[in-house]
Structure formats: C-alpha cells, structure tokens
Amino acid sequence: MDFAINERQQQLIESAREVYARKLKPFIDNNDVHSADGTRKLRKEMAHYGLLGVNMPVELGGSGLPLLDTLLLTQTLQACDSAIGSIAHRSSTGAVGAIAKLGNEKQKELVKRSTAGEIGISIGITEPEAGSAATEMKTKGRIVGDHVVIKGHKQFVSAVNANDYTVLYCRLADTGSAKDIGAVIVPHDAPGFTRSNGTINMADELLFELYFDECKVPVENILIRENAFGKLISIYNGERLGSISRMLGSAQAAYEYALAYAKERKQFGREIADFQGLQWMLADMRIKLDAAKLLTYRAAAGAGDTGLPDRLETSIAKVYTANAAKEICDDALQILGANGYTKDYPMVQRYTEVRGGSIYGGTVQIHKNMIAAEILGRKNDQRKKN
Predict the structure, then answer these.
(1) Which residues 6+ apart lie within 8 Å of 347 measured at CB?
(2) Angle at the Cα of 114 (from 47 to 302), degrees rounded to 5?
(3) How far from 379 is each of 51, 323, 376, CA to CA, in Å?
(4) Between these two residues, 230 and 72, which has the higher pLDDT value?
(5) Three-state DSSP class for 143?
(6) For all residues of the chain together, what is the average pLDDT?
(7) Over the range 244-266, which residues count as b (16 or more CB within 10 Å of their CB) and which as e?
(8) Neighbours of 35 (CB within 10 A)
(9) Least trusted range by pLDDT, from 149-163, 229-243, 289-303
(10) Are residues 236 and 358 in the same domain?
(11) Tell me, what's the pLDDT at 1?
(12) Cα–Cα distance between 32 and 51 in angstroms, integer?
C-alpha cells in the first residue's frame, strides 16, 4: 500500500503551517493560551480557520476528511505548537468522535458546537482503582425517573477547566461485567458535579479529578447504554491515533531543530554535523521517525470510510511511536548538549510531551499484551486467579 503524501495532503500540511505562521503564532504570542480563557479564545480562532473537527461530517460542521488527513493535520499543528495540536486532536477524535458515531440527532448538535469552537468536550475513563484495568471502574449511573443519577470519581481528565462537557464512561447496570459499561454526556454545570483544581503533569498540562455526588443528568444524555464498552473502545482507537500523531509532531519538531542546530553549532573549528557520532544519531532519528509515521499512517488508512482503525495496527503504532518519540527527543536533547537541557531551548518541552505517550491511552505494556493476544489468538487475562 502506498503511504506517500499526495498532493492534496501536502497542500493541507502547507496551508496549516501558513495559517500558524501568519495568524495563530501572533495570537499565541499575545495570549495566555494555557489558561482556561486563553484556550477558549484559541479554540475560536482555530475554528475561524477551519482547523477543528476536520474529519467530522460536513453536516456536523466538519470538512469530512479521512482519518489519515486528520492525523497529518494534527501532527503538523503539534509540531508548530503543543497547545494548537492538543485542541486539534480533541476536536476530531475521542469524545467528539464518540458522539459523532453513536449520538442521536440532539447529541450531535454538540459536535457542531465543538467544530465551531464554541465548546470543548473531555473524556472521563480512568479511576483510582481502574487505570489499565479500565473495566474495573466503579462509577455508576442509575436511572431515576427522567434522570441518570451518577455516583463516582474519575481522574487524569484533560482540559476540564476550559471544556463544557465530559463523555463519562460508567456502569449503567449491575452484572459486574464489562457489558454494564456505557457512556453519559455530563454537562459541567450539572448538579452534583465538581472537579479538582487540577494537577500539573510533566508537560505543564492540567489534569483533573472529577467527582459525581448523586450528579443528576437528563436520561436523554445517555450516549450508549447496553453492551457498549466494545463499541466505545473501538471508537477510542481513533483517539489513540490522535495522541500518536501528537507524539509524531513533537518528535518531528525535535528532529528538525536538532538537524538545523547540528549544521550551525561549531566545536573544534567545525560544524558538529561533521562528526560521525552525531551523523549516526541523526540517521537513527530519521529512521525511527519515518517508521513511526508509516505504522501510524497504515492504521489510519485501514480505517477506511468507517473511521474505525484496526486495533492490532493501532496498538503496534502506539508501542513503536511511544518508544521512538522518546528516543528521538532524547537524542535531539543530547545533540544540543547543555543547551538542550535548559528550558530556553525547546527540547525539554518536547521530551516531556512525548513521555506521557507511554502511559496515556493504554500503557505500552498493556498494548504489548493486546498485540500478543491478537497474534497468538488467545485471551491473556491479567486478573488474579482465585
């Protein structure tokens, strides 16, 4: 299969870079885009230039682009600026994608508002005792009249302070199996909903805990109820590829910066690019970057018209890219030497951005378990046996 970037995709990439340079970079330089208010303003600015929800259907305000094109755009914008890459990613996959695929007509109005930059939507899955073992989640919603009453606790939820809704994974039945897990769209002004002030991760991103104390949400906000977890995770693979494309963007930016630096920095009267040790590092970085791109593009291209990537190809891309991106950024930092180790240069930020990729969206160890189960044709149950 040919994964070469075609002319239309190249134009998309070049247009995104031009919009960033001419319109978004000055906006970022003059605004605190890491604050809640700054994120909202940036979201509206990006919507103005058609950079949100590009793979959403045209009738929902998107551009109807394939998943592969969406990842190329996210990767490009992430390489320009992490805040822009984050918003592009979250407006195209994950929670928004789940609503676009599974929502009713009223719920899909939220997708239109997201694509227009009016709102943001988070996704709540992880709990204190349900991280990699996501199906162990305890958060529960019970139907009381015309409301869902939710009791539980989520953590490590992104962008809640700047967003307006969370697609909440929770139990909607009592059998204790994964089949009980469904999803509810929770407005952040719902009675009984509160959030923490946020915890800052290595990449200076805020992550929030969500608390549901008999939180009341209209029953019409149930996104999917029965036997839902498999469908939700199938859609979540698109979210995973979105996260991978952000890792690719940061790794690309680190590689390009190190490459340019090696041609300019001089020691012993020569460009450091003349030294074979550094040449081999740059060659390895390029090989890893290209391999990670190809694995990611394969998974995206395989999604076809459904927009649902193959789980095996997604896991393979996830594991390889998470490891490769760390190594690329680490080598880029090494090439810059002491400069790379300071926050005056971008290597520290790029490394911290990609480091989380080995953890979120399923750890690389969990994905290796999934790959092994798939290629062996057997289920590897990690639960403790009685």
Answers:
(1) 254, 257, 258, 329, 332, 333, 336, 340, 341
(2) 90
(3) 40, 25, 9
(4) 72
(5) strand
(6) 93
(7) bbbbbbbbbbbbebbeebbeebe
(8) 14
(9) 229-243
(10) yes
(11) 54
(12) 20
Residue the block writes with tokens 């790029």 = 350
Task: Give the domain CATH number at 202.
Answer: 2.40.110.10
198: confidence class by pLDDT, cuts 50, 70, 90: very high
Range of the domain at 351: 230-376
> For the purposes of burial, counting CB atoms within 10 Å of the CB of 271, is it exposed (0-12), middle (13-18) or buried (19 or more)?
middle
Residue 327 near residue 288, CB atoms below 8 Å: yes
The separation between CA 310 and the C-alpha centre of its own chain, rounded to angstroms, equals 17
Residue 273 burial (CB count, 10 A): 17
pLDDT band at residue 167 using 50, 70 and 90 as cut-offs: very high
Residue 386's pLDDT is 62
Instruction: Indicate left, alpha or beta for 363 from its phi (over 0: left) and psi (-120 to 50: alpha).
Output: beta
Residue 86's contacts (CB-CB under 8 Å, 6 or more residues apart) are 78, 158, 159, 205, 246
Task: Answer yes or no: are the C-beta atoms of 383 and 261 closer than 8 Å.
Answer: no
DSSP 3-state assignment of 277? helix
Distance CA 130, CA 358 (A): 17
Higher-pLDDT residue of 230 and 275 is 275
Q: Is the pLDDT of residue 132 over 60?
A: yes
pLDDT in tens, 54-63: 999 999 999 9
| Domain endpoint, select from 115, 137, 155 | 115
CATH number, residue 34: 1.10.540.10
Measured distance CA(143)–CA(145) in Å, rounded = 6
- Looking up tokens 């307006």 gives 164
Residue 153: both structure tokens together: 């606790």
Q: What is the SS3 assignment for 124?
A: strand
Q: Does 142 or 3 have the greater pLDDT score?
A: 142
The reply to whether 354 falls in a domain is: yes
Compute the distance between CA of residue 155 and CA of residue 164 in angstroms, rounded to an integer.
17
User: For 81-112, what is the HEC assignment?
Assistant: CHHHHHHHHHCCCCHHHHHHHHCCHHHHHHHH
Residues with Cβ within 8 Å of residue 68, at least 6 apart in sequence = 9, 297, 300, 301, 303
